[in-house]
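Lab notes, practical 5.
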Amino acid sequence: MNEQRDVHRPKRSLGQNFLVDRNIQRKIVEAVGAGPEDEVLEIGPGRGALTDHLEGRVDRLVLVELDDRLAADLAERFSGRPDVDVVHGDVLEVPLERHVRDPGRLKVVGNIPYNITTPILFRLLERPRPERIVVMVQDDVADRIAAPPGTRAYGALSVGVRSVASVERLFGVGRRCFRPVPRVDSAILRIVPFRPERTDEEEERRLRTLVRAAFQWRRKQLGRILRDHPDLGHPEAVAEAAARQAGVSLSDRPERLDPAAFLSLARALP
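Output from the prediction step:
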C-alpha cells in the first residue's frame, strides 16, 4: 500500500474496517476464481486490499467505492488504465449495468459494510444475476443465510438468498484481521446463482411476499398466516388446496419449510 492510502482514517458512518491480513486477502481472491478472461466487480475496495491481488490478473476490474477520498485515490492510482473502471458511488444506487459488459458473466467480490449487508446482497441478486459472488459478511449474518430449516437462525434472509442461489460458507475471518478491530468476527460466503433460473420474475415477487409475511409471524402456524396476514388473506379452502399441491402441512410453522417448499407453495397460491 502506498503512503497516501495508509493515512486514510476509517469512517464509522460507512462501516469501514480495513482487512490487513494478506493471507486472508489471497484466500478471498482465490475463492472468486477469476482469470484473465473475467470481468470482476469489487464492492468497497477501500485501500485496495483485494484490488492489489486482482489488478493485472483479470480482463477488467470495476471498483465501486463510496468514500470520497478513497475513490479519488483509486482514480488517481488507475488513471489511464483501460482495464480498471473506478466508480465513485453507492453500490445500492449505481446502475451497474452501465459499467459492466455482461452482468450474467460477472464475478463479484467485496468486504461489504455490516450495516447494509442485506440490501447489498439483494441488490446483487437482482436480474440479471452475476455468475458468482464472494462476500465477507458478519459471522451471524453468514449463519442466518446458510442456516438449515428448523433452526432459530433460519428465516426470510435464508429463503430469500437460497431460493435463487446456492450458498457455501467458506471460512471464518477473525476480528484481529482488521484495522480498526471490529466488535464481531466475519465469514466468507460464496453465492452462486442458479443456472438456468428456477423461477420467473412473477414467481419471485409472489415468493418474496409469502416469505416476508410468513417470517413476520414465524411463531404462528402456516394456515393462520395464509388466512389472516394482511398481505395474504387467502380463504381457508384456497390455502388447503395450495398446501396439498405443494406437499406442505398447514400446521407447520414457517421455519419448518425449506426454500423449495416455499417456492412450491408460492406457485400453488392464486
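Observations recorded by the TA: The longest strand covers residues 165-173. The domain at 3-193 is CATH 3.40.50.150 (Rossmann fold).
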